[in-house]
Amino acid sequence: MRSRRRRHPLLVTALLCAPAVLAAGPTAATGDADSSGGVGAEVVRLYEEASVATQRYEAGRREADEQRGRAQRLERLLDRERRDIAVLHGDLGRIARAQYRTGGGLPHTVQLLLADSPEELMRGQRAVWQADLAVDNAVTKSRRAESRLAADESKAASAWQVLERRNDELAGIRRGIERKLEEAQGTLQGQADASAAAGACRGSVRLDQPEEAFTQPWIPPVETYGLSAGFGSGGERWASRHTGQDFAVDIGTPVRSVGRGRVVKVSCGGPFGMEVVVRHEGGYYTQYAHLAAVTVDQGERVSTGQWVGQSGTTGNSTGPHLHFEVRLTPQSGSGVDPREWLAERGVRL
């Protein structure tokens, strides 16, 4: 079974649609179907490129954070070594002062004259030499550790700078793709508005469908979304209660058939703008409205998850989103709550 990805809102405002009570009747498509996909396919491709660029950017950012964490750990180790060295230096000073007080600072000949016996002199000298050797070894060891940690710190800082530059480059690539995507979305929506105003579709846009097949019979109509206006909502935007469930998605987002069925209506004019209606087993109908492009033809059979269009903001719409309905008939006015209907079929929005 295809794993369900976590859904989250796209970077769009959750805007609402405003269809009138009665939808426009179907209108015939004009012109040949666009086999290449045109600007619609370009929008989908740019979505994918933007997603890949974002993933690479996030991976680089995480790697940079890890590198910075390593550098900070090295810095903490370095600080500890510096404190240890300061303590050793203090001990060395105390030993030197103690040696001076006990004769350690006197010349060897004077110490020999003042010593009670050669054995006492040798014991004192041996104790001083051992103390000096221990301190010297500790200081040398700490200085080597400090030098090694400083080199590691420098290496980590250099790696951090490289990662920062790489992230800046990836961010620039992502911004470039987003600009292209915005331009392509504007072109796609402009073509859709012209078709909706004329009341005639340009013909279905053929996009490369997802390769993986769905094993579950029912799915949400879009993969990544935020829910906005729900079924039965009231407000100034509608002549009566809201008849469907709105999904906040950006222009050009692929819209999927929630289940197997047959396309019974493709319309490009009226309050719903570009819309597709699919009949499913059991006599239920699903509607996908305010589209920017249609990717199926009337009478065509569709499978679960097949793209039937691309989201937009045609018709009586205040911003990009998908208006989704579940109906008892192909016409408006026979809707049931889409969230409850999908939940009964194992799909929770």
Notable traits:
349 residues; 45% helix
Characterize this entry briefly.
This protein has 349 residues and is of the alpha+beta class. It contains four helices and ten strands; from the N terminus they run H-H-H-E-E-E-E-E-E-E-E-E-E-H.
The main sheet comes to: 10 strands, antiparallel
Give the helices and strands as they follow along the chain.
HHHEEEEEEEEEEH
The shape, in one word, is: elongated
Quote the distance from N terminus to C terminus: 18 Å
Radius of gyration: 37 Å
Q: Please give the number of β-strands.
A: 10
Provide the helix percentage.
Answer: 40-55%
Could you list the spans in which at least 5 consecutive residues all have pLDDT below 50? 1-36
| Discrete helix count | 4
Residue-averaged pLDDT, rounded? 76
Kindly estimate the percentage of residues that lie in beta strands according to DSSP: 5-15%
Going by helix content, strand content and strand pairing, the class is: alpha+beta
